[in-house]
Specification:
This is Fumarate/succinate/L-aspartate dehydrogenase. One of its GO terms (molecular function) is steroid dehydrogenase activity, acting on the CH-CH group of donors. It comes from Streptomyces formicae. The chain has 551 residues and is of the alpha+beta class. The chain is built from 18 helices and 20 strands. α1 packs parallel to α6 and α3 packs antiparallel against α4. The longest helix has 19 residues. The two termini are 12 Å apart.
């Protein structure tokens, strides 16, 4: 029986590159197909901040962070809250991933030349009890070089495979079907799209110029999730989070459309946990967009006052950086799909980091001088650009003008100046009170006990209304689509399973298409820094398993 390759990999993002790299190491012949042009090689990972979840790393130990496998597993399970029969494989993947994060993950990447920023971030702090949601300690490690820096060794390994004649890169090939011979899926069909020279992330054309059919002994699906397809996001929106937002902005390009998930399901794959998804509540419209509805996430420190659309403070523990989906659930219960940060220039300069490789040119460009200049600047350049040009930003010297600006950005003038002044004055009084009952003030003080937060993430406690810390800033926050937490159900060998629980012969899946492992390794929530790592871990597993299975 004639085959065009040993394995066909569908999707040239990080998971697809990791799988292909492993296949190359095993000497297997691979066809890597993707509907986008070559300039989009690496997919969403290119745009990422490069955050990775490690457990008991050298970076943590240098900062006197005491972490352990047992603590990380407790945090993961408390966050995931697995509670469904179909969580069998996701739970197994979660256990395996924590083993990986506490074991060889860092040394494996370090051996390929990946390096890490020395200050560890503390994302998703939870704020509930010890066994509930959140990271008990800081675990968010930033790749030196951000997303492009993490992609680099895998792109290199795949291109070496091309040079050796083991890999064929087939860009502008859109898959539309999976076919079988003798019971196993071994055929991939689809359309060849017209060449496109658009820059990375821009929408490419969908003009069809031909068709293709490739055959191989195994197929690995690494096509990503649904975050760029707002209709599909709304169709799968979980009831527990209320009605889907009227307005959403996109943290991923439009080609992240979920198309391949439906095709795999049509071929017999089981798609589970469709209603589990991860969207951010601190989204701002990109003033210089690359794709349609392009949004950027603010990675906030703990000091901004978080208000709902009517100007009321969000309840405890929904402080900046504590519980993403808990905050989303609360917001969707207010009847509005936006909220506000109110702060001042001193806080925004210290505490605002913008997610994305393009928003962090110092880290992406591996510039030590740039990082030092950022730390010394009153407001980092990328943040200052949003203050000057961002559609969601209001910057004013006095509160009255700030409130007028806030109300001008919304359909209804819901913010009352007198009420907001009382709220700010009450908060500011607690700053001078060592016995405060304001738990956000307690959280700020707690954050500053960690050296990393004190250095670059948490401003010294001060009054928001202090004129010396001004001007005042208000930021309208939108719902930002991002990750699909459910996906194709897979066993620990990344083999895709059917409704009956048996492997769909010849088919593997990895990355977001597989819920980062098992069809939903995160359960209901993420600990952050686990999406890129999930692509690497599941992509590596799929590549190794497929390499061992083919003859």
């Amino acid at each position: 029986m004639a085959y065009d390759a040993d394995v066909i990999v569908i999707g040239a993002g990080l998971a697809g590159l990791a799988a292909t790299a492993e296949l190359v190491d095993a000497g297997r012949r691979v066809i890597l197909v993707d509907q986008e042009p070559e300039q989009s090689l690496g997919g969403q990972a290119h745009w990422s901040f490069g955050g990775l979840f490690f457990v008991d790393s050298p970076e943590q130990r240098r900062l006197r962070i005491k972490d352990s496998h047992a603590l990380a597993l407790q945090d993961w399970m408390g966050t995931a809250a697995f509670d469904r029969p179909e969580d069998h494989w996701p739970r197994k993947w979660a256990e395996a991933y924590v083993d990986f994060a506490a074991g060889e993950k860092r040394s494996w990447l370090h051996g390929q030349g990946v390096r890490f920023f020395p200050v560890v971030g503390w994302a998703e702090r939870g704020g509930y009890d010890a066994q509930g949601h959140g990271n008990s300690v800081p675990r968010f490690h930033i790749t030196w070089g951000t997303g492009p820096g993490l992609l680099a060794p895998f792109v290199r390994r795949v291109r070496e495979g091309v040079a050796r004649g083991l890999v064929q890169l087939k860009f502008r090939h859109r898959v539309s079907g999976l076919g079988r011979s003798a019971g196993a899926v071994d055929t991939v069909t689809g359309e060849v799209l017209e060449d496109s020279s658009v820059e990375r992330g821009k929408a490419s054309n969908r003009e069809v110029t031909g068709s293709f059919e490739f055959r191989a002994q195994a197929v690995i699906v690494t096509s990503g999730g649904i975050g760029g397809n707002h209709d599909l996001v709304r169709a799968n929106w979980p009831q527990r989070l209320g009605s889907p937002p009227e307005k959403m902005i996109s943290g991923v390009p439009a080609h992240v459309d979920g198309r391949m998930l439906g095709i795999a399901e049509g071929a017999g794959a089981r798609l589970i946990n469709r209603d589990r998804m991860w969207h951010y509540t601190e989204g701002i419209e990109n003033w210089h967009p690359i794709w349609d509805k392009h949004g950027i996430r603010i990675l906030p420190g703990p000091s901004s006052l978080w208000l709902d659309a009517r100007g009321d403070r969000l309840p405890v523990p929904l402080f900046p950086g504590f519980d993403t989906l808990g905050t989303l659930e609360h917001i969707m219960g207010t009847g509005y799909d936006y909220t506000w940060f109110v702060l001042n220039q001193r806080i925004i300069g210290k505490e605002f980091t913008l997610s994305g490789s393009e928003q962090n040119p110092d880290l992406t460009g591996k510039s030590v001088r740039g990082v030092i200049d950022r730390a010394r600047s009153e407001v980092p350049g990328p943040v200052k650009a949003f203050m000057d040009h961002g559609a969601d930003f209001v910057v004013e010297k006095d509160l009255g003008a700030l409130v007028r600006g806030m109300n001008a950005l919304t359909k209804e003038p819901l913010i009352d100046e007198a009420a907001l002044r009382r709220t700010l004055a009450a908060r500011d009084r607690e700053i001078a009170n060592p016995f405060t009952k304001d738990l956000q003030v307690t959280a700020i003080r707690g954050a500053r006990k960690f050296l990393g937060d004190r250095l670059i993430r948490a401003a010294a406690p001060h009054r928001i209304l202090d004129p010396k810390a001004g001007p005042l800033v208000a930021v309208r926050l939108n719902i930002l689509t991002r990750k699909t937490l459910g996906g194709l159900e897979t066993d620990l060998s990344s083999r895709v399973l059917t409704e009956g629980g048996r492997p769909l012969e010849g088919v593997y899946a990895a990355g977001e298409a597989a819920g980062f492992g098992g069809g939903g390794v995160h359960g209901y929530r993420s600990l952050e820094g686990t999406f890129l790592g999930g692509c690497l871990f599941s992509g590596r597993a799929a590549g190794r398993a497929a390499a061992a299975a083919v003859r």
